Amino acid sequence: MTKINSIYIIDDDAITLFGIKKLLRRTVECNNMYEFKNGKLALNAIMHQIELGQSIPDVIFLDINMPIMDGWEFLNEFLKLPIDKKIIINIVTSSIDPCDKRRWMEYKAITKHYLEFKNKPIFSIDLEDIKRIYLAS
Amino acid sequence: MKTDTLTTHSFLIKQLPTATAFIDTNFKLIYASDKWIEYFNLEYHASIDKYLFDLFVEYDEEWENCLKNCFKGSTEQGLQSKKNDIGEEKWFEWSNVPWYDEQENIIGVIIKTEDVTSRITSELKLEKLEDLFKEQAEISKVGTWEYNLITEEIIWSDMTKKIHEVSKNYKPNIETAINFYKQGHSRNTVAMLVHNGIKKGESWNTKSQIITKKGKVKWVISAGKPLYKNGKITRLIGTFQDISKEVQAEIKTKESEQLLRTLIDNLPLNVYIKDTESKKILVNKAECDYLGKSHPKELIGKSDADIYNKDIASISRDEDLHVMKTKKPILAKRTVNIKKDGKSTSFLTSKIPWLDINNQSQGIIGISIDITDLIQKEDQLRDLINVTAIQNKKLINFAHIVSHNLRSHTANFSMLLDFLINEKEEDEKTRIMDMLSHASDNLMDTLENLNEVVDISTNVNLEKKPIGLNEQITKVEQSLAAFLHKNQAKITNHIANDINVKAIPAYMESIILNLMTNAVKYRHADRDPHIILSARILEDRTTIFSIQDNGLGIDLKKYGKKLFGMYKTFHNNTDARGIGLYLVKNQIEAMGGNIVATSEVDKGSTFSVYFNDKD
């Protein structure tokens, strides 16, 4: 089983949270799996980790429609943070709005992180959604 | 003896009343009358016995020859002009006759000179006048005529004959003369005028038509006046002038004027011409109609200040001056005219400089087309487009919400069902089943919410009724009593009891309920909720209802745009559905009103509802 140090799941929907965790357990072994109800809470946690010099998540599952700070607002702030390692960010949304897809492409073009786009429902999580062995530094 | 005779002769001749001189055959001046001496401005004693031609500055060969002829016995006469010392031209009539002695021998010449200057100049003047008169008649085509009442003879001048196209020796009489006038009005008028001239001594001057000998119709002015002798009218004299060309030109001018008038009066445009003072000198029918005048006369000489209000007139005058100064037209400019009665009209106006032949501005030509209706339609159309655009935006937004929300639920169903099929453990199966039923509830809620939104958008015909604001508030307070009590909420109401708003009752209840619930729901953790209600009426009869709380507040800079959006929540409350304010806004807008929010984080929020009472 693949081992991942830290995974953040950012989603306000309890069922999606349940689903992602359940699917992850089939693929990886991870002792630090955290849930956040909105972007703001997750961002605060990451900034706190950076301040303490502790490790930040390797993989993020990100919903778009959330209260207080939505997925795009979170991305906007997150990409400004001083992070050296490449992080896999999976956008998970039920939106099939072409606008959202366009925005994903725009962010993908400017970031060094692995930014992926997944439409709900998701039935499985593949290895490459959580690890890029061949590219990992 | 001889000397005596000479002296006596000399004395007599000196006093002759005519200018007379005697010379001998040697051209020596023997005698001369004082008159003759004076004539030539000579001196008597210095002249007698002197050689004749020595007395004059200029030698006159012709005269010498003439005198020589006289010595041979002939008599010579002539007219001669001489300039005197001061340059005046003098005319003399002279006669030289041989001077005989008792034996009939020629012993000299007697010279007689007469000053005819005044006679000659008046003759010359007359000649000149006659020439002038002829020439004038030729140029102005004015002829003359004379009718002698006693001899019944009529004399026509050459020009008069020429106008009648008769030969120079034509002799008219009173009957044939009058018959040249065109039968009808012309002939009757002239016959009457001639009659009155003879009988009552009245002068006349009339324009009429004649038919010439050659059958040509001509316009003439004939004038006449009686002449008296011993108190009786003996003659009529007068002038006769061909004015066909002038009349023709006048007719042509009138015709083109008529054409122009017809053209501008039938244009669906307001046309006017103004002078340099911006006073109207020409207006067409459309302009008259627009300004409510039945005749252009009522507008001629008027300026814009007489017609429009002060501001409009001043703008128009500035435009006129600009066009006249720059000599460049203003084309198709949108203008608004407000008449003195306050009626406003929109025009597309062009002002064109009106230049004289020296390229100087002498006014402006204005052309305006009334586009009031057009603009009104344009405005209506724009309003319609705006409404449609808003509706369209709402529709897209709504479709989006529907697809997104339904999709998120169905996605959850799919995922959970997939889990359920593959799940072996009973406990986990039960857990998934619970989640499925939870998902189902969520879906039902969402559908209900959507239904509420659809209701507002489709029930556009719900009628507005006057509602007592306080009555409605009391009703909501009662239904929320338990909730308010549980949260220790305090409500202060400043609204006067007589304030009514026109609203749809069901919406009104929903609006107050949602706003009041929100005020308590998003309370500040440090204090009990306190709600302040107030209302005021604006000048345009809009009623503003305000609900102020001391809750969490919201950062409007960040969330202002999303505040009234669907499924937007801004706090960590688990019961926030993100539908309340969306519904409230839709309900208020459906009633033609508006809602605005002000807020400060940690201090509280105020929501103000504007009720449109007009429609």
Automatic annotation (TrEMBL), chain A:
Annotated TM spans: none
Modified positions (4-aspartylphosphate) in chain numbering: D63
Alphabetized PROSITE patterns for the sequence: RESPONSE_REGULATORY (PS50110)
Positions of the Response regulatory domain: 6-135
Listed InterPro entries: CheY-like_superfamily, Sig_transdc_resp-reg_receiver, TCS_response_regulator
Ranges in coiled-coil conformation: none
Superkingdom per UniProt: Bacteria
Alphabetized Pfam families for the sequence: Response_reg (PF00072)
Keywords attached to this entry: Phosphoprotein
Entry protein name: Response regulator
UniProtKB/TrEMBL annotation, chain B:
Start and end residues of each PAC domain: 73-128, 204-255, 329-383
UniProt-listed SUPFAM superfamilies: ATPase domain of HSP90 chaperone/DNA topoisomerase II/histidine kinase, PYP-like sensor domain (PAS domain)
Taxonomy, superkingdom: Bacteria
Histidine kinase domain: residues covered: 401-615
InterPro entries on file: HATPase_C_sf, HATPase_dom, His_kinase_dom, PAC, PAS, PAS-assoc_C, PAS-like_dom_sf, PAS_4
EC number per UniProt: 2.7.13.3
Class of the enzyme per the UniProt entry, highest EC level: transferase
The UniProt record lists the keyword Protease: no
CDD domains with a match to the protein in the record: PAS
Catalytic activity: ATP + protein L-histidine = ADP + protein N-phospho-L-histidine
Keywords from the named record: Kinase, Phosphoprotein, Transferase
UniProt cross-references to PROSITE patterns, sorted A to Z: HIS_KIN, PAC
Protein's UniProt keywords contain Repressor: no
Protein name according to UniProt: histidine kinase
Species of provenance: Croceitalea rosinachiae
